[in-house]
Amino acid sequence: MMLPPQQIVDHLRASDNFLVVSHVAPDGDALGSMLAMGELLRALDKHVRLFNESGIPQRFMWLKPEWDILRELPADEPATIIVLDCGAPERAGARMAPWLDSKTVVNIDHHLGNPHFGTMNWVEQRTSSVGEMVGVLARELGVPLAGLLGEYIYLALISDTGDFCFNNTRPETLEMAAEILRLGLLPGPFHEQKQSTGTLNQLQMRGTVLQQARLHAQGRITLIAFTREIFEQTGTGPDDTEGLVNTVLYVRGVQVAISLREEEDRIKFSLRSKGSVNVQAVAARFGGGGHRNAAGGHLFLDMDAAKRVILDAVIEALAVS
Q1: Cβ pair 62, 21 in contact under 8 A
Q2: Are 255 and 277 in contact (CB under 8 A)?
């Protein structure tokens, strides 16, 4: 059974004045685990604030969280910073960097290659999500996975497991989800709210991108690209790209899916794979990171050059898998 380090449990019990942080451009696990940790510390009657340099993405506004998520560092400094779902300290954002060197830092994460940058570290690569780890902490601290705490953990669970379809879905993951359901969460309304966030513009943009999808390496790789031109033509943006790389992974015969997104001065790449193909190792070559079957990073190239470089690296990974 996965258990948190006793040092972290004791620190959460004994200390006060926490700042909870997750990675920039938060996904469902980063946001869910951050909000869940806030609820957990609130239940322990702690002074706690939440910080994310990017704020809440538009696609998660349906959550209507009761928290004011700070985008600037608070004037009164916290005693402890809890960093969630950050495979490296820089993932917490540039504004957070000076405090990570000078404060007590609790690093809770599940990414391959996490360098254990905290004062206290709990890194569990085999767990489904950091939200699941927060759920385990709540159990250890005697706080039920009910209400908003349960909802936020459930969001993290379904986000990082692909609605319990990925291989990181362990029996313990489903048992935690069942516990949350027993305590009152209704999955139907929850999923309806989560899914009903798209727009017609987003649908049209995704249709354009999918029409331009290409197969490579004898059909073992799919590649999609989101250009600034497509965003401008369809009135969409980076937040509207979420999850499409998972869709193209399931083309018959494909082992790796690549998504490239044009940003101001770089290309954001996302990689997804099936089976033994280790895309985390590919991402690490370019300063990125993630998990064996889901990883990403940035390339400081134009789109055409980025396609060539990342395709060559993925083809090399396929040859050794």
Answers
A1: no
A2: yes
Round to whole Å and give the CA distance between 108 and 116: 9
If asked whether residues 190 and 204 sit together in one domain, one would say: no
- Residues 212 and 186 both lie in one domain: no
Quick: pLDDT tens for 137-194.
Answer: 999 999 999 999 999 999 999 999 999 988 899 999 999 999 999 999 999 999 999 9
Q: Up-side HSE of residue 213: CA atoms within 13 Å toward CB?
A: 23
Q: Which domain holds residue 273?
A: 200-320
> Domain boundary at 194, 217, 248, which?
194
Dist. CA 209–CA 199, nearest whole Å: 15
* Beta pairing class for 267-273 and 289-291: unpaired
Q: Is residue 1 part of a domain?
A: no
Q: Is the domain of 280 the same as that of 143?
A: no
Which residue matches tokens 């999955």? 187
Query: How does pLDDT run across 128-148, given as a tens digit for each residue?
Result: 999 999 999 999 999 999 999
Contacts 24+ apart (CB under 8 A), 162-167: 162/246, 166/128, 166/293, 166/294, 167/293
208-245 residue pLDDT tens? 999 999 999 999 999 999 999 999 999 999 989 999 99
Asked, for residue 313, whether it belongs to a domain, the answer is yes
Tell me, yes or no, if the pTM score tops 0.90. Answer: yes
Domain contains 103 = yes
- Which residue, 150, 179, 194, sits at the end of a domain? 194
Same domain flag for 125 and 210: no
What's the token pair of residue 247?
A: 């869709």
